[in-house]
């Protein structure tokens, strides 16, 4: 049994391909950027097709890409780059150089003169 992963497998093309491959006896991993969405899609396929979906699992796109022997993109041409790219890490904002609110702070100036 070949392990086949479908990235972006929650849409019409990906879920249809997953159903056909699984019904044909292959081990299929349905991936999505949102693992909950992949789980919902797999649950729907199992409810609809029953025992024919015995070898189907859901996971994130990254997990599917690592686990599967063959990886397929089940998206439209416009969505391929976003689907195949690793998820973006959210950067924390840079710490402010200003003092906390309520504190007085004066930035030194090159034109300021020392007090007499």
Architecture overview:
The chain has 4 helices and 4 strands. The radius of gyration is 25 Å and the shape is elongated. It has a 4-stranded parallel beta sheet with strand order 3-2-1-4. Helices cover 34% and strands 17% of the residues. The protein has 116 residues and is of the alpha/beta class. The longest helix is centred in the middle third of the chain and has 15 residues, at 35-49. Helix 1 links the parallel strand 1 (3-7) and strand 2. The N and C termini lie far apart (88 Å). It has a single domain, classed as NAD(P)-binding Rossmann-like Domain (Rossmann fold, 3-Layer(aba) Sandwich).
Strand content of the residues, in percent? Answer: 15-25%
Looking at the overall shape, the CATH architecture is 3-Layer(aba) Sandwich
How does the helix and strand content classify structurally? alpha/beta
Please write the CATH class name: Alpha Beta
Widest sheet, order of strands: 3-2-1-4
Helical coverage, percent range: 25-40%
CATH topology: Rossmann fold
List SSEs in N-to-C order.
Answer: EHEHEHEH
User: What would CATH call the homologous superfamily?
Assistant: NAD(P)-binding Rossmann-like Domain
Report mean pLDDT, rounded to a whole number.
83
Main pleated sheet: 4 strands, parallel
| Separate helix tally | 4
* Mass-distribution shape: elongated
First-residue to last-residue Cα separation: 88 Å
Secondary structure: number of strands: 4
Tally of separate domains = 1
Question: What are the key terms here?
Answer:
4-stranded parallel beta sheet; 116 residues; Rossmann fold; elongated; alpha/beta; single chain
């Amino acid at each position: 049994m070949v392990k086949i992963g479908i990235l972006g497998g929650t849409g019409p093309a990906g879920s249809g391909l997953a159903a056909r491959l699984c019904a044909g006896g292959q081990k299929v991993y349905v991936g999505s950027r949102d693992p909950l969405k992949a789980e919902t899609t797999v649950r729907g396929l199992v409810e609809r097709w029953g025992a024919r979906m015995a070898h189907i699992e859901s996971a994130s796109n990254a997990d599917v890409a690592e686990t599967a022997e063959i990886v397929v993109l089940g998206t439209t041409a416009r969505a391929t780059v976003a689907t195949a790219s690793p998820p973006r890490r959210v950067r924390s904002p840079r710490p402010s150089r200003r003092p906390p609110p309520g504190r007085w702070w004066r930035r030194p100036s090159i034109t300021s003169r020392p007090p007499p």
